[in-house]
Amino acid sequence: MIAELGLAALWMAAALAALQLVSGVLAARSDNLEIAATVRPAAVMQGVLCAFSFAMLVWLFARTDLSVKLVAANSHSLKPMIYKLAGSWGNHEGSMLLWVTVMGAAGGLIALLERRLPERTMQATLATQGFVALGFYAFLLFSSNPFERLPMPAVEGNGLNPLLQDIGLAFHPPTLYLGYVGLSVAFSFAVGALVTRAVTPDFARAMRPWVLGAWIFLTVGITAGSYWAYYELGWGGWWFWDPVENASLMPWLAATALLHSVSVLAARDALRAWTIMLGVVAFSMSMVGTFLVRSGILTSVHAFAVDPERGTFILVLLAIYIGGALAVFGLRAGTISEGERFALVSREGALVVNNVLLSAILGVVLLGTLYPLLTEAFGVRVSVGPPYFDPVGALFVVPMLLVMAAGPFLRWRRDRVGRVQKPLILAGVVAIAAFVAAIASGIGVLPILGLALGAGLAVASVLPLRGRNLRRLPLATWGMVIAHLGIALSLLGMASDSAYSLEKLAAVAVGDVTGVGPWQIQLAAVEPVSGPNWTALEANLLASYRGGEPITLAPQARSFWQPVQETTESALATRWNGQLYAVLGKAAEGGRWQVRLWWKPFVTLIWLGGMMIALGGLLALLGRLRDDLRRRTVQRKAAERRADRAELTA
Amino acid sequence: MRGWRFFVPLGLFSLFVGIAGYQLTQPREEFVESAMIGQPMPQFAMRAAVPDRPGVSLADLKDGKPKLVNIFASWCVPCAAEAPQLAALEARGATIVGIAIRDRPEDVAAFLQRYGNPYTRIGADDVSELQLAIGSSGVPETFVVDGNGIIRFQHIGDIRENQVDMILEKLREAGA
After folding, report:
1. What is the Cα–Cα distance from A130 to A28, expressed in whole angstroms?
2. By CA distance, what is A276's nearest residue in B?
3. Which DSSP category does A413 fall into?
4. Are strands A551-553 and A502-508 parallel, antiparallel or unpaired?
5. A330-353: pLDDT as tens digits
6. Would the CB atoms of B75 and A559 count as touching at under 8 Å?
């Protein structure tokens, strides 16, 4: 019954999405108030029913109902409960249902909360949201039904890919999805405003919290995903330029550009067409990424469901939604005038340059990701990796960082370079000092650039705080400072990791001592251990930093039996100045064990920086929401006073 | 017309949809080629994985005769499914060299006992060293290596019944 309930709710939610689309379009085109009154409730109910459907799927996984095909294929009765639950979205069908659930919930929230937009724009926005959701409902109901029963219940489930049985990864997809799908809201807003020609600062203020929210989740998702890949895959790296990784990086780049241009639109009524364009592009990148990952069209280390039929379905959805939005953009963009003018040397000017550079980086990543697809059409197979992405990306990242350092010092509309010289010179001096120090230590070109720019940007990021009353500073400004500082820290971490990492592959017997960098490591024991659905060999390593008190590290080589797979569980020792990373290999000759060790100075700054970027976004979001609340209270009080006065004079 | 530039994104996007659509309609090459095709095998020497077959080194592959190098493991389920096809290949004259990945001698022996032993030599790759060096990412995989130790073909996944002829053909090509 649970599966049937879930499926029924899914059909009803799809019907409501259709109603939302039709009534939204009719309402936006006529003055029929009754039709207009159905749009918001339809959106709310659609969200509720879809969430109910998803809850049913989670329940099926919690009970390990093996008569349901999806559960039998992706779960196992012996699995820990947390991974049973995570199993509901750790597969193609479930993750698509999660996707549409987040979309439905977002649509419901807009319908309930958003009061700033003109009613017609609101209806057009909800109609767009319904339209996009409808495509995904069709996808689920006709091509990827998560509630399909097996003709005969399975005896036991197939399990969940052991690599996914990790707490970080259990929550990685939902986080990313909140980001991807949050961008669908920005997309709907953009289309709604374009259709009704209502691209105004009010529209930008209404859209901004959604962009910020989506961007925060994307940032957290990417940061967590990178850390997961780093400690779970046991290869010591943190970014691979894999199509799946790029699939989340591309919407992030577009959303970052959008975030800045939406602020320009909100504050200065400029960049109207550009903001709309980015709103469309950001969500397009979410969908293009999904398409690339799901269609099997590109080969990736963590490719999802390799299925051309599903790929075709997503491609058709892509063509309809993005093609449609871009066609409307082409027709309408000329009619929304560009708004206020500004000088090149101004806050707007810096943001525009930054936007262009971010878009260029997005182009570089997109091209690199699609390039194998392009050449394959001509029968040539290539893979594109760091040799392309690193230098070509740096070509645009370097000027972007420079503009990023300078931008926050500039005034809106018009400024003089002379006025902002002092802080920039200071940041420049720090960068040059770092540059000289980096060259002196004899490392590669890109790490040198990274260290120098990171140091300069770190200084430039906090300098806008100088001479301001910190307690009076708006939360949004704190957010900007912290997020920019986060970028600088991440950059320093990446540069330091690639410049100063040391690696050692050793074959050691129990009792032997080996070392990497400042660490001395003794293999104390290798013993079998077991978990709920795996067995493992666990090494006991005593690691001492510069002859200090030793700490124990316990890397494992795990064997899962359902499905059969071996994974490495690396062990990390984190110090303020870096991480020791240890992986246990297999037995070597003569009773010795392969142990792989890395000393990675300041590598943790990469993820600390990522978290700070997200925190900056969160502060900005809270600041905006608080301002909003205040404005509403003031407006309400003013209205009450007017009403009182009217009553008195009556 | 001044507004044409607003259609540039649509144009670019159409191009993407066109290429992606074209790619989707192409018959999928089921097997991904390694960048190692046409490259020589790296230098290696591995101890024997089981007592009754010798180990493998690069020199063994450079004896002038083309061979199949089959990457397998006793813990790998598709490898068991592949066993009849390997037996058929051996029966039709293919020389097959095995590389056992992250395996224990007694497990390999039990596996061969149960599913048959088509291998002339079996090397033990305890840390996937050779596997990674020749661009293989999983088990089973089969490489066609010519008499000079050059990799000519890579087959990813288990060999199916209807692929035996194709593999023999690749082996014959490598010998020419």
Report:
1. 14
2. B6
3. S
4. unpaired
5. 888 877 766 777 777 888 888 889
6. yes
Residue B33: its pLDDT value, please? 54
Selecting from B10, B77, B126 the residue whose C-beta is nearest the C-beta of A323 gives B10
Measured CA to CA, the distance from residue A578 to residue A517 in angstroms comes to 11
Chain B CB contacts of A291 below 8 Å = 20
Chain A residue whose CA is closest to B24? A308
- The tokens for A106 are 């977002």
Each residue's pLDDT tens digit, A499-516: 888 988 888 888 889 989
**For residues B55 and B45, what is the distance between their CA atoms, to the nearest angstrom?**
8
The CA-CA-CA angle for residues A148, A313, A1, to 5°, reads: 15
The torsion defined by the Cα of A163, A167, A172 and A175, in degrees rounded to 10, comes to: 160
The dihedrals phi and psi of A538, each to the nearest 5 degrees, come to -120, 130
Burial class (CB in 10 A: 0-12, 13-18, 19+), B120: middle
Q: Which residues contact A641 (CB under 8 A, 6 or more apart)?
A: none
Nearest-angstrom CA–CA distance, B41 and A404:
48
Between A and B, how many residue pairs show a Cβ–Cβ distance under 8 A?
80
Enter the tokens of residue B109.
């022996």
**pLDDT tens digits for range A411-448:** 887 777 777 777 778 788 888 887 777 777 777 778 88
Cβ atoms of A431 and A452 closer than 8 Å: yes
Nearest to A511 by CA among A500, A521, A502: A521
What residues of chain B have any CB closer than 8 angstroms to a CB in chain A? 2-3, 6-7, 9-10, 13-14, 16-17, 19-24, 28, 32-33, 35, 47, 75-77, 102, 126-127, 137
**Biggest alpha carbon distance in chain B?**
80
Helices (H) and strands (E) in chain B — how many of each? 6, 7
Using one digit for the tens of pLDDT, what is the confidence trace for A573-629? 899 999 999 988 877 777 788 888 999 999 999 999 999 999 999 999 999 888 888
For residues A434 and A455, the answer to whether their CB atoms sit within 8 Å is yes
Q: Helix, strand or coil for residue A458?
A: helix
pLDDT tens by residue, B88-101: 999 998 999 999 98
- Contact of A536 with A509, CB cutoff 8 Å: no
Strands B67-72 and B96-101: parallel
Reported as a pLDDT band with limits 50, 70 and 90, residue A471 is confident
Residue whose tokens read 């392309």:
A388
- Best of A381, A535, A567, A594 to substitute, by most chain B Cβ atoms within 10 angstroms, is A381
